[in-house]
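Query structure, 151 tokens:
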């Protein structure tokens, strides 16, 4: 099974870089030909281009729901995700909409997409370090990612 582990975010916006931090740690822990590890700062249709051709995609990202404390780890499917994951502007589309467009265009889309999102404390301040609460979740998110890969 060809799998993409995709960390999304922005490396200079504090907790928005949590997906990048997890991908870097997973990269240190595994070396598998069936797994591609990547990082991106895209959303919508740009994200669609990255997932085409994979059987499974694990997306790692920061999220702010206002419903959980910083550091809370969400495991979501695209159908459970309400809102726009990495939408860059009002002209962009949500992940769910991008996937529907891909289906209509007969793209080779993943059969399974899992989103592991960490409730962020700060995604607006410039900084290259995660907040302590979010940084403390990175090892657990790495373990969850490795468990997903072993499923």
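Result returned for the query:
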């Amino acid at each position: 099974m060809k799998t993409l582990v995709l960390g999304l975010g922005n490396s200079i916006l504090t907790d928005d870089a949590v997906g990048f931090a997890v991908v870097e740690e997973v990269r240190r822990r595994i070396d598998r030909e069936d797994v591609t590890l990547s990082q991106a700062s895209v959303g919508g249709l740009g994200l669609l281009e990255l997932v085409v051709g994979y059987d499974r995609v694990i997306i790692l990202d920061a999220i702010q729901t206002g419903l959980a404390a910083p550091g809370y780890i969400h495991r979501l499917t695209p159908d459970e995700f309400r809102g726009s994951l990495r939408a860059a502007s009002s002209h962009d589309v949500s992940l769910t909409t991008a996937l529907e467009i891909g289906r209509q265009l007969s793209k080779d889309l993943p059969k399974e997409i899992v989103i592991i999102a960490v409730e962020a404390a700060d995604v607006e301040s410039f900084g290259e370090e995660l907040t302590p609460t979010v940084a403390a979740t990175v090892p657990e998110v790495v373990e969850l990612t490795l468990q997903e890969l072993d499923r």
